[in-house]
Design brief:
about 300 residues, alpha/beta, Arc Repressor Mutant, subunit A, D-Maltodextrin-Binding Protein, domain 2, 3 domains, 12 strands, globular, LysR family transcriptional regulator, DNA-binding transcription factor activity
């Protein structure tokens, strides 16, 4: 039996089309014509021997075969990109310093470190988990080469790589801590100041005229999760790393402020060209694309 080799460019267009919701938008993101992307999809369906998508209103719906292929396509593309990164950087030697938000310490950092070590065994990587302000300071002072941090509003288009929803969080098994029609101030669980998300929470509560009090302060994210799960306060965070003992509140039903999305940025040192940092940035983006839900991270090039 002759095996069929799937076309990698067609797979990339297929994934981009599903993530974007239409192949017209995917064509724009990929810098190709809509007809070229449609031709790639047709070629992929011929290779797979089955239809992959069908129209559903103005959007697209995956067929059973499309759902199966999409899962494999993401893995194939990630492995392809990792292989190319390894080959192009096979001769790299030296060291690189990475800073990362605590939110991503368990979900993204293990993937990043493992992949980078396999791709570049001659490069030493130093990692640091820290708060947003510290990461920014160490990038500015040259003590870090790369940092994955929240966007405080100063990020450029190239630095911003994802947009994550903010949400109000409370204990999963506890009765509501606070009622909008009650007389008690909202108990807030937060990290020690300065904290970007703490500031966002307080600003939005103030704008809506909701009285609040700091009920619990923690120097670490682990402590914040524990306090929230114990019912000591309501926290504001993204869903990343949320433990099962903590649930998301419906702001409309609870009388809480609607929240914006929070940008995630990849900060780079301005010391000049850094091939090692470039390869590490590629791996970080790949790990995020695998970890974050579709739509949180735009389908863009991995190069900076």
């Amino acid at each position: 039996m002759r095996l069929t080799n799937l076309d990698m460019d067609a797979l990339r267009s297929f994934v981009a089309g599903i993530d974007a919701g239409s192949f017209a938008q995917a064509a724009d993101r990929l810098g190709r014509s809509t007809s070229a992307v449609s031709a790639q999809l047709k070629k992929l369906e011929e290779q797979a021997g089955t239809a992959l998508v069908r129209k559903s209103g103005r959007g697209l719906t995956l067929t059973d075969g499309g759902e199966v292929l999409l899962s494999y396509a993401r893995r194939l593309l990630n492995l392809n990109d990792e292989a190319m990164s390894a080959v192009r950087g096979a001769g790299l030697e030296g060291w690189v310093r990475l800073g990362i938000q605590e939110d991503f310490g368990e979900t993204v950092l293990p993937q990043v470190l493992g992949r980078f070590a396999r791709a570049h065994p001659k490069v030493r990587i130093e990692g640091r988990i820290a708060r947003n302000s510290e990461l920014s300071e160490k990038i500015a002072s040259g003590h870090l080469d790369l940092a994955l941090a929240w966007d405080d509003g100063s990020a450029s288009a190239t630095e911003r790589i994802a947009s994550l929803p903010l949400c109000w969080l409370t204990a999963a098994e506890e009765a509501p801590l606070w009622r909008a029609d009650g007389n008690e101030p909202l108990p807030l669980a937060a990290l020690e100041a300065p904290c970007l998300l703490r500031t966002i929470a307080c600003d939005h509560l103030d704008r809506q005229g909701i009285a609040w009090r700091i009920a619990f302060v923690s120097p670490s994210l682990g402590g914040l999760w524990a306090a929230t799960a114990a019912g000591l306060g309501i926290a504001l965070r993204t869903p990343v790393g949320r433990p099962a003992a903590v649930r998301v509140l419906d702001p409309v039903a609870c009388g809480l402020p609607q929240l914006p999305s929070l940008g995630l940025r990849l900060l780079r040192s301005d010391k000049g060209p850094n091939p090692i940092g470039d390869h590490l940035a590629t791996i970080i983006r790949q790990a995020l694309r695998e970890t974050l839900p579709a739509g949180w991270m735009p389908e863009t090039s991995d190069t900076n």
